[in-house]
Structure formats: structure tokens, C-alpha cells
Amino acid sequence: MSVLEYVANGLVFSSIIVLASIGLSLVYSIADFANFAHGDTMTVGAYASLVTFGVVGGLGGSILGLPYGFFVALVAGIAVAALVAVITHRVIYEPLDASSIGLLITSIGVAFVYRSVLRLGFGSDFTEFDITLLRPIEWLIPYGIRMTRHDVAIVVSAAILVTALHLVLQYTDLGRKMRATADNPSLARVSGIRTARVKLWMWVIGAGLAGAGGVFLGLYAQISPRMGFNILLVVFAAVILGGIGSVYGAMLGGFLIGMINQLTPLLTDIGIPIGIEYANAIAFVIMVAVLLVRPSGIAGEGTT
Amino acid sequence: MTDDTSSTDSANTADRRGGILGALRNPGDYFGSLRRAEQGVLVFVVGLLALLAYGVVSGGLGPAYFTYLVGLVGMYILLTFGLNVQWGYTGLINFSVAAFFGLGAYGTALLTADSSPIAGQFNPLVGLLVGLVLAAIVAVIIGIPTLRLRADYLAIASLGLAEVVRLIVLNEQDLTNGSAGVRAIPGFFEGWPLLETFPQTMPGLEIDTILWETVVLQSSFWQGLLNVALVTVFVAVTFLVLRRAHQSPWGRVLRTIRSDEDLAEALGKDTYAFKMQAFVLGSIIMALAGVFYAHLNLYVSPGDFEPINTFYIWIAVILGGSGSNRGAMLGGFVVIAIREGTRFLGDILPATFPIGLPDMLSIVETTYATIIGNFASTRLLAVGVIIILVMRFRPEGVLPPQHELIWPGTVDSSGTERPERGVRDAKTGDSQ
Amino acid sequence: MTNDDNHPVTRRNLLKVGGAGLALTAGCVSQTDEETTTTTTSGGNGGDTTTQQTTTQESGPYQIGMVNSLTGSLSAFGERNKRGKELALEDVNAVGIGGRELEILSEDSQSTAQAGVSAAQKLVNQNNVPFVIGAVGSGVSLAIYESVIQSTDVVQLSQNSTSPDLTNYPGLLRMSPTGSSQSSALAEIIADDGYDSVAITWINNDYGQGITKAFESAWDGDVAYNQSHDQGQSSYSSVVSQMANSGADAWLFITYQPEFTTMAQEAYSNGYEAQFYGADSVKGPKVISNTPEGSLDGMKVVAPSAAVDQDNYKSFASRFEDAYGTTPTSWSAFAYDCVVNAALSIATADDFTGAALQETVRDVTRPEGQKVYTFQEAMDVLGDGGSASDIDYEGVSGPINFDENGDPVGYLEIFTVENHEYSSTGFISG
């Protein structure tokens, strides 16, 4: 029953990718450039929460095997990632009178700065959260599913965050404005929406979600300065698959890419000789195929 | 009537400069006619070369190592030329530079090395050919899906496909030796009648510069000199070809595509075909750099395909000046200065902050120590900051293309001299 | 009108200056009296085997080079080497070599071959060192040897490389024993434990490839799974799941600590149980501290060992603990011995050139001489004019005794994880 096992792994990995994809898609649609520093924003969030967790500790009690202190650290990670992104936006991106290409290239520089500062501060080795590892959930094992409560926590937390975002987008004023700005910035501005402020909120939400993704990735695997960049291209693949400009598309794309990535071992099981070391390569090829066949992705609007 | 001074001015200066020959004929004029940025760069480059030369004669810089550095500079210059064709001329954001560099290197390595898993022990000239052809083929393969995309999609897609190439090279051990890399690559001149043994047959020389140390030039130096000569030939040929291409009708179409693709389409040009040609040409040049690298380093590994190498070249092109070959050369210098120079900085700068500071400022000391102690990270930080600064303050680069676009022969050399007053002034007179 | 009348930089002036400069140098150029032998070149910088003229010191410290993984995936080893080197330098310079000190110029390989070759280029061509201690990664050592060292007479002694491939290069010495002995030992242990089927995963580089190949030829039983994995990934859950599905109960890991830690954690989180075995690089304190209690119990690791019973090792270990607060690993011991070996080689050589050092570097540890256990002791025996074969340096890592391929005789130690700690459960002499 190893298929279910791969599916379960895929579910957890997708949660992380979905969180990162939403942020990237938001930036793409509202600030209109491909933010290559997005992966390193995840890393920033992860390290911030690591530091916080080290300071705050367990705080007694735990949910799903994760101490309360972890959730405090999660919030800290989200906040710091958002703060760093906002500062970068104000100091670097906003004053830059550049095209989306220029911003793209600048974001590469920003990515390097994030990563090198983290390396200087924390060294280039991997670290971990100081949380005990758990055994898989007993009653799932007969079904061939091996998930620990931490994995469940990751999926549940991601679901909560995504739902919260959905509620914000659909039912709040800010959400309406964000959707309008994403759709047609000039029209939005003309109709009185303060697009500058919307942009700010977009950075907060996008980077915050990325930070959360980074924290969960750190919990799921390890924390290291390269973690974000390693996953960046996979996130791009997810965003493109889902369709740039659509947050819901990004969620779907993230889910699909995450699942496909973890289902790769099935190929060799069936007999196709593509090993798991090509899991990421498959995502990239899918991305290019999407760009060729249907550049707007599954749910995105048509591109100009 | 439009003010004609600017075009007259540039016509004069273009003529006056007359390229390198003009510089030799009349250095003073040449220097005076340069823009300020160009003057600054010329001073910088000449100063750097003088510093290096001083280093060699004073014993601070070993002659063989000096030639190695110059070889690396040449290699980076080739890479920036290649990217310049794609980005500078045509506006293609190509993040797969490392892939073509690696393909050139692996193409020749797999054919000429003793330890190659597929072939081996062919002449390096065959390796050169294969490397270039391989890069051209892969360029077409990568280009077909990506060149129709808009710019930022092209960036992401090219990066993704470059990663696919890297993963294939890393994992197909039967073809490429996987992560072990390919060793025992022969030098480029193996099998050539005179040049193969040139380093041995040249006598060792001791040059006793009166003021400084004795400089010893041995076979390692002569070998290095051969490599420098090789890369100089590559660079010179590429430079001439590109200059010709840039000023040709083909180049004009590329520039139109860069500034406004729709206009080019409207004029009836098959932009896709032109972009593909530029893409392939650029990739071949990058592969040429890769071939040189393989025969310089005598070792290639999948690490040569890492994306960071792509981004270094991008910095060189952006910093140097998109679209300008001279800018590309400057960029190459700067990148080498960053990559290799920081190695020396680590030797020169003291490990701890030299001045004792009060306790409150101890954070300065720890920061300094961390920065000096972790040069790989500091280098990355420097690169990131440079990108941001350049994009913020001088996005066109230090030496954007200017006079290059004018073919000297097209300008009437008997053009009017620069008048002392502007034309408009002359016409209206002093009546204010 | 341009005012070039004020510019003295005319062509005529340039020629004058240039000519004067050339004339000046003309009288100062002379030939070195080196013998040039024409050999077929295999490229690289320096294509013959003449003696490396040292433009360095007649006095002042002896300078040798070291290429170490100060950053990158092998940085843990780099740190250990640095500590061993520092202790060795203390010991050597407390006595001195003919009144002069030993200085080591250390360069970072960043755990990659490319950077390692650059570092070696600088050491050999710029600093003109006749002796290079390097490197950690097997691929790095090999690349340095082939690109830089092979065509010169510089001595290269790798401190930590264990890939069996290095045996094919007799000119490349190493202080740690070859991994093929580890592989045979592992094959024996797994068979003795009663398993006839094993699942292997190995890191995708020279080290992993070499050790795995050697294991495959030593192993008689069935190989149920044999897959490589890349360095530095954040998740290896697919590998772990596949190993579980392969049906083998013995799992062999030939990889580095960060990667193994991830795999061990994932095996634990997935509830997999199997008997783990590992090659040398999976063992380390970070692995223990980052895996849950009981997850590794029973795991057996084979690693090169230092000569833990010897007195010189014991005093080395206690000094190490005083200085750095932890017990040393065998890797630090190897680095220590590299430095001492180099120092002894310099002390007994005719001059400070690569060719002369090649003559002595192996002899100082050959069994023919008088056994000495510390640098001080060796210098006492040598006195004023001793030669290399007078002494047999027995290092803190073992007797050394390089064979014709440049490999040392080594000890292996078998560690078993008990109560979530490594305990030594046996020795094998290689």
C-alpha cells in the first residue's frame, strides 16, 4: 500500500509549497514581477522562529505534539518575514523605477543579501528545532499511511492559514481591494483604492505566508541557509501551473506540484526509469510545458 | 531647425577615437574624447593592470598564478560576451548560462579525457567542435519552448531547464561520471607540433628587476602564457565577430526586438527566428568559454552547472553595461576581482578588528571577525549588494553602448569641427 | 579644437619610455640554470619535473600549504582538521626544525573541487609551497592532484579522503586508510549479523561511489536496493520509503551526517524499523543530538580509528579536550599526523624543495627506523644530521607506513550505538 504513503507525504509537502506559492503569486500579480527572493524569505521566517523558539521554550503543554512555544515561534517567523519584506519593498523595490525585469534582477540581489546575512549569522550548517521527534500515528499504519502528529499539525496549520486568507480575500474590504488591484491596477487606483497601501498589505501577507512555509519546512526537514533557494524553482513551477494572478490557482498548483513531487517513486514502480533524483526536474518540465501550452496556467487570467 | 551639435559631436568623437588604432596614434586625443565613465574605467583597468604588474615584479604575485588569473578573466569575458548577445543585443533574459558553459566543458572533457566514460583521447580540437555543437543543439532544444515567452517567463523557464540539464549530468553516471566529475583532461595544445612542448623548451628566465625582487619565469609560467594566448585569441575573434554582427543589419533587427518587439513584428521580421539565432550564437560563445575552462582547469564537475555561476555572469553584464562588449569586459574583470580577490583580502586584512574598541561597540568587532572569517558568505553579500546598487543607481551599467553602434566608415571624416558655440546660439547671435 | 598641445602623452613619448624600459631590463634577464627535460606534457601549469625553484626563504619559517574544507558540506571535518593542525603546530614549533618554525598557509576548498583547485593553484603557483596537505573530500583531492600537483614535484598528502579511487594514484598520499577496507569490514559484519539482503543508499559523489563499489564487490549476498542521493537536500523521504519497501532488513548508509540525520529522522517518523549500518562519515555528535532516543540503537558504524591505546594518542586526546572541550575524532588525529609527518620530512630532507621532500616523506614512517611517537622524540633521535630512515614515526592515528600506493596502514573501529551513544565494540587493523 505504498501509494497511500506517497500520497500522505505529498499532502505534507504540498502544504508547504502551497503556503509559498500563494505569496509568490500575490507578489507577481500585484507588484508585477517574479520575486526571486521569495525562497530566501522563507528561510528568514524559519530562522526567526528558530531563534524565538530558543528564547521562549516550550511554554508547557502541547497540541499535536508541538509545544505552545512552537506556535508562538511560528507567529514570530511570520511577523519577521513580513517585516523584512516590507522593509525591502520600501527601501529597495519602491524607489526603483524599473521594469519588471529590472525588479526581477534586483530581487536576485536581495535574495543573496538575505542568504549571506543568515549564513554570516548562523553558519552554513543545518540546524533543527529542539522538538522531540514522534512516531507515526498508530491507527493509520494498517492503511499503509505513516504520518506523525507533527505532519498533521503542518497540514492543519496550513489549512487554517489558507482558509483565513480565503476569508480575508472574499469577505473583507482589504481582500476586495487586493483582488481589484491584482485585476487592474490603474482602474483600482482610479476608483479610489490606495494601491500603495494594498501593495504593502500584499507584501505582509505574501511574505508572512512564505515565512510560515519556511517554519514548517524547517520542522519537516531541517533549517539551513540554502533551504529556501533549493525549493524556489519548485514553487515557481507551482505558481505557473496554477496560473499567475490567481491565488486560488496558486493553491491548486502548489497542491499538484507537491503531490507530483512526492509521487515520483511511483514511476519506477510502474516501470518508467525516471528515478526520484529527478523529482524536481519533473516539476520544471511541467512548468515549461505549461508555459508552452497554456501560459495562463489552470486558473490564471490571460497574460498580456 | 533641430540642434545638430549632438550628432556632430558624436560624429567627431567617433571619428576621432577611431578605435584602438586611433588610440595608439594619438593617445592624448583619444583620452580626451572619452566620456567620463569611460575615462574612469580606462584609468581603473590600467591601474589594475599596473598594480598586478607591480605585484609580479615585487614578488607579491607569482608569475604563473598571474597568468592563471588572466586566463580566468579571459574566460569570464567570453561568458559575458555570450550573455551580451542574448541580453544586451536582443533582450533575452537567459538564466541558463551555466548550462551552456558546462556543456562546452563537458563536451570537450568527455571526448578528450583518459578517464571519460564514453569516448576519450580525441584531439582537443575535436573536443572543441563537439562542445560547441552540443551547446548549439541544446540551445535549440531549450529555445524552442522558451523563446516565444515573455521576458520573465523566459527567465524562469531557462533557469528550470538549466537545472534539468544539471540534474541529468549529475545523475547519469554512465554518461558523465556523475558527481565524480571528469579528470585527466589534456591541455589544449596536446598533439600540436611546437606548442605542446613549448613550456619545456623555453628556457627558464630570471629577470632581475633592479628595484625589486628577481622574477623567475619557469615552465609553469610559459604554460600559463600559452593559456593566456589561447584565451586572447578566443576573445579577440569573438569580439571582432560580435562587433561586426552588432553593426550589421542583423544586429539592428536584434536591437529593435530588444526595444520593441511588436515594432519588429510589424516591420515584417520573424522575431522568433532572430531570437533563436541570437540565443544560439550566445550559447556557442558560452560553450567556447567552457571548452577553454576544461583545458585550463583539467577537471570538470557537475558543480560547474550550479546557478550561482549564471548569476555571476549576469552581474558582470549588468555592471559592465548591457549591450556593450567593452562593458562586458569590464564586468569580467570585476567578477574575477570579487571571486579571487577576496581570497587575497583574507590574507591581507587582519583577522580581528585592529583597533581596540570599548565594550559597547564589541558588536563591531564580532561582526568584523565574522565577515573576515567567512569570506564565502561575505562574497555572496557583496555580490547581492552590488546588484542592488547597480540596479538602483546605474541600471544601464558603467559602460553602456554608445559609439560602438557607429561603424567608423559610415561617418564622414571631414565633418565640421565642433563649433565654439551651439548652432542655435550661432544663429540667434548674442541677442538675448 | 582639442588641446593636445598640453598633453605630453604623444606616441613619440610613449616609444621613448617603452624603449628605455626595455633597455633597462635587457641587461637583467638571465637564464635560470635549471635542466629542462622534455616530457610529453599533460597540460596544466608546469609541465615538467624540474625542481621547483623556491623564491622563498633561506631563513624564516618553512611554509607549507593546506587545503581544508572550512566551509561547505564538509565543514565539520574542516573544523576537526583545523584543531588537529593547531595542536600539531604547537608541538612542532615548540621544538623547531633546525631553528626555524613551521608555518601552514591554509586555504578553503569550500568542499568543492572547483574551489579546491583554485586554492591549490594559489598555494603552489603563488606561494610556491613544496608540500600541500589536502584535501578532505575525495573528489577534491583527486582534482587537485590531477590539475595542479601531478605535473610538479610538490608533495600532496590528503588528511581525510577515504575513497578507494585514491589508491590508483601512487603520487597522492593519504593519512586516512582507504575506504575499501571499511567496505570489506562492513560486508563481513552484516553477513555475520545474519543478513543476506541489504538496502544501500549512497551519496552521489566520489566518496559514495567509491565505497559503494568496493562494498558491492565484497558483499556476497543480495542487494535489494541500491540508489544514490544528492547532497544537501532537505528531504529524503522517498529514499527511505523505498528502502523500507525493498524488503531488506539491513540498511547501509554511505553518506554524510546531515543527510543521514534527515534519513534517520524520516525513518523514525515513518515508523520504520531496520538494522542500520554506516560508513565513516555518518558518525558524529550532531547525528546523536538531532535524532530521538532509541532511533539508532543497534546501529553499527565502521570508521577509521586513531591508535587509541597508544600513549601519544592519550596525551593528544587530553590536550585536545583541554583546548576544545570535546574528545577528538580520528579525523583530527589524521590532520595532526599530516603536519608532524610534513615537519619530519622537512627536517630530514636535503633541501626545502618538492623533489627532496618526495624522497623523505614516506621514509620517516617506514618500519625500518627507530620507533618514535612524538615530534620531540623524533628530533632527539635525529640529532643534527639524521636521515629519514633512522626514524619510524608512529602517529597518533596509527603506524602510518605508506604502501606503494600512498595508502597508510590503518585501524578501523567498529562503533555500535547503545543507549543513544556511540560505544566502541571492536577494532580491525587494515
Keywords:
heterotrimer, B: 432 residues, mainly alpha, two-stranded antiparallel ribbon, globular, disordered N terminus, C: 430 residues, alpha/beta, Rossmann fold, 7-stranded mixed β-sheet, 5-stranded parallel β-sheet
Describe this structure in words.
The complex is a heterotrimer of chains A (304), B (432) and C (430). By secondary structure, chain A is an all-alpha fold. Helices cover 71% and strands 1% of the residues of chain A. Chain A has a two-stranded antiparallel sheet. In chain A, 57% of the residues are buried. Chain B is an all-alpha fold and 432 residues long. Chain B is globular and about 65 Å long. In chain C, helix 5 packs across helix 6, helix 7 crosses helix 8 and helix 11 crosses helix 12. A seven-stranded mixed β-sheet of chain C has the order 8-7-9-10-11-14-15, sandwiched between helices. Chain C has a five-stranded parallel β-sheet with strand order 3-2-4-5-6, with helices on both faces. The relative contact order of chain C is 0.12. Chains in contact: A-B, A-C, B-C. Chains B and C meet through helix 3, helix 5, helix 10, strand 1 and helix 11 of B and helix 1, strand 1, helix 3 and helix 4 of C.
Quick structural gist:
The complex is a heterotrimer of chains A (about 300), B (about 425) and C (about 425). Chain A is mainly alpha-helical and about 300 residues long.
Binned, the helix content of chain A reads over 70%
The number of helical runs of chain C is: 13
User: How much is the average pLDDT of chain A?
Assistant: 86
Biggest sheet statistics of chain C: 7 strands, mixed
Per DSSP, what share of the residues of chain A sits in E-state strands of 2 or more residues? under 5%
**CATH architect. name of the largest domain in chain C:** 3-Layer(aba) Sandwich
End-to-end C-alpha gap of chain A: 46 Å
- According to CATH, the homologous superfamily of the largest domain in chain C is Response regulator
Most extensive interface between two protein chains, with residue counts: B-C, 68 and 64 residues
The first-level CATH class name of the largest domain in chain C: Alpha Beta
The strands making up the biggest β-sheet of chain C line up spatially as: 8-7-9-10-11-14-15
Low-confidence stretches of chain A: none
Unreliable residue stretches of chain C:
1-9, 33-57
Give the helix level of chain C as a range of percent.
25-40%
CATH topology (level 3) name of the largest domain in chain C: Rossmann fold
- Overall structural class of chain C, as computed from helix and strand content, comes to alpha/beta
Shape, per Cα inertia axes of chain C: globular
> How many separate structural domains of chain A?
1
Percentage of residues in DSSP E strands of chain C: 15-25%
